[in-house]
Amino acid sequence: MAGSKKDLYNRINAIGSIMQITNAMKFVAASKIRKIKLATAAAENYYEKSFDFLSVFPKEDIDSIMTKSGRISDKNLLIVLGSNKGLCGSFNSAMARMIRREIDQDSYNLFMMGKKITEILDKDFDLFQRDDEILNDLSFDKVVKVYDYISSEYKQGEYKNVYIAFNYLKKGSPKPKIDKLLPIEIENAKGDNIDNCIFEPNSKEILKKGVDNYLTSKIYCAIYESILAENTARMIAMYQATENASQLKSELTTQYNKIRQSSITNQILEIVSASEAVNG
């Protein structure tokens, strides 16, 4: 009983230490979320402005900017956004399940962003390219470099379509989805608002800049949405871990107190029995 009592005491202390860690991680994630929400809102606003600008041009003009040259491959490219760190629940595993369900291995190359999602999908897919560091210190300039590489490969006919897979928040919980990047799909691109516009140096040059900004901002926005979803998933996971640890600690404390009370009762009985034996 003494050994069991000591084991329970050690387990209670260990769970208490774990609770302190998970609780601290929960607050760290919550603190990051507040900052990331502001950055995500700014990225979304820029993306929406880029979309509005591009939508006034005729669709055939937009398509001409990303015209492919040479042989056109049947392969598609999928940019996959995950996380570099763990302890974020099903954030990466849900993404992996969706990709395995939706994507044909033979028809896609994967551009990976995130160590954890890369580890999960490494055995199943052809991981064409990888950039984990962009998630640690995200900037628009870094996304521009990624876009320049992807657009160059697309224009050379290396890929038929380009998609991006990322987690976003739906009703406060992370949910994975796949969006199409290339070819550009803007259904309301009519070009009926530019007849009286004067472009300098010319409309084609301005449109090229608009297409570049639109696609870059779409990737940039998706990465920020993914980072926001990751930290939300981590905060939820750490909250649940803290609650589970608290419940387990309470159960073990009750068990420990029962053993302790039983031990005290036995000691009292031994003292009373010894006293009666002496007096008897």
Structure in a nutshell:
The chain is built from six helices and five strands; from the N terminus they run ααβαβαβαββα. With 280 residues, the protein is an alpha/beta fold. Helix 1 packs antiparallel against helix 6 (203-279).
Strand content: 5-15%
Number of helices: 6
The count of DSSP E runs of length 2 or more, i.e. the number of strands, is: 5
Average pLDDT metric: 87
How far the N terminus sits from the C terminus, by CA atoms, comes to 31 Å
**Main β-sheet description:** 5 strands, mixed
Quaternary state reads single chain
Provide keyphrases for this structure.
280 residues, alpha/beta, five-stranded mixed sheet, 6 helices, 5 strands, elongated
Can you describe this structure?
There is one protein chain. The protein has 280 residues and is of the alpha/beta class. Helix content is 61%, strand content 13%. The chain is built from 6 helices and 5 strands; from the N terminus they run ααβαβαβαββα. It has helices spanning 2-54, 59-65, 91-102, 115-121, 140-155, 203-279; strands at 76-81, 108-113, 126-130, 161-170, 173-182. The protein has a 5-stranded mixed β-sheet. Strand 2, helix 4 (115-121) and strand 3 form a beta-alpha-beta unit. Helix 1 (2-54) runs antiparallel to helix 6 and helix 5 (140-155) packs across helix 6. The longest helix is centred in the last third of the chain and has 77 residues, at 203-279. The radius of gyration is 29 Å and the shape is elongated. It starts with a helix and ends with a helix. 28% of the residues are buried.
